[in-house]
Design brief:
Largest sheet: 9 strands, antiparallel
Bound molecules: calcium ion
Shape: rod-shaped
Strand content: 5-15%
Number of strands: 11
Distance between the termini: 192 Å
Length: 433
Amino acid sequence: MLRSACPDAKCTFLTSCRHDNRHEGHTEHSARGLLEGFIQDSVHSETAQQQQTAVHNQTAAMLQIGTSLLSHTAEQTRKLSDVEAQVLNQTTRLEIQLLENSLSTNKLEREVLQQTHDISRLHDKNSLLERKVVEVEQRQQQELQALRRERDELQQAVLQRGELMDALERQLLGATHNQTVLQRQQAELTETVRTLLNAIAQASSQGPAKEDAILFSDCADAYEAGLTASGVYTVKISDSTEAMKVYCNMESQGGGWTVIQHRENGATDFHRPWQEYKMGFGDVAAEHWMGNQHVYYLSHQQHFVLRVELRDWEGNVAFSQYERFYISSEKLNYRIYVKGYTGTAGKYSSFAQSGIDFSTKDMDNDNCACKCAQMATGGWWFDACGPSNLNGMYYTAGQNTGKFNGIKWHYWKGSSYSLRSTTMMIRPVDFGV
Ligand SMILES: [Ca+2]
């Protein structure tokens, strides 16, 4: 081991030494021992030194490594601490959150409990209310039934009262009728007395000339002579050859009216020929037509007012009045002239304009290609065919609407309404003046 470790110079020295030593003997041998010892010491010390240096170096390196390791460990420890701290923080936070959650869960549970309780209470209240509603409904039902019974009883009472009213009305009507009959009888009696007086006067004077002086020219004349009861009177119209009976209305608007047309119950047929309309027909004390020829004569004696009085089926009355009226001769088809309309039976006059000829079922003088008198079943002053016909078919209550050949006065009740009663009457313009 020493040889391999020896440097070249030392080896050469040793070889030469050993060569010398063989020549010199024992001295040589001890020197060599000293040398070897020295060399060995030197080698030893060198090796030791080298070993020491190596150890020193290694220790330094180890120390360095250790220091580095220590610092690394310290670093790691610090990092670990940090991580630990973070983990701790998070854990704490989580714990707090958990606690909070637990708290809020508790609160929610309490609230849910409270709400459940509330709901149960409301449910109870609701049941109570429902019961009350049912009770109220039952009570109302009972009251309603009571009210219905009461209403039925009231209706019954109203019905009975209505029947009573009807009976009373009928009695009243009967009484009125009786009164009218009495008035007529009175007028007839007066007439009879007058005729008797005339006869006595004739007998005493032996002269027939006085008869004319005693007969009235119309109802206004009779009224002015003091006969103020409505009824049938005998008049002698000038130009007419003989006396005739007329009905005098002595009540309406001061009286003195000579009736030229009257409808009241449909007892008289008004669908008649020209000749009958000319001379008149019907019962003078009831439904009748005075006759166009008589009206023509009468309305030429002086100026006349025409008054038309109407009654419907609902108990309403109305009138149309003309301050001037006359009809022309038969040659002119008894053409009508009216003017100066006033009245309640419509805003406008229901006569066709003045100058309309009279037509009957056998004498078509109207302004229509048709025959108005045929269609409207009565003689009248038809235009084409115009807004009126008081001589139409008589319809009774309930049948009086939707009829175009009824008793028509258009501007009061429309064209399809048939009236209950009508009166046409005339009086001198200067009556009562
Ligand atoms: Ca015609």
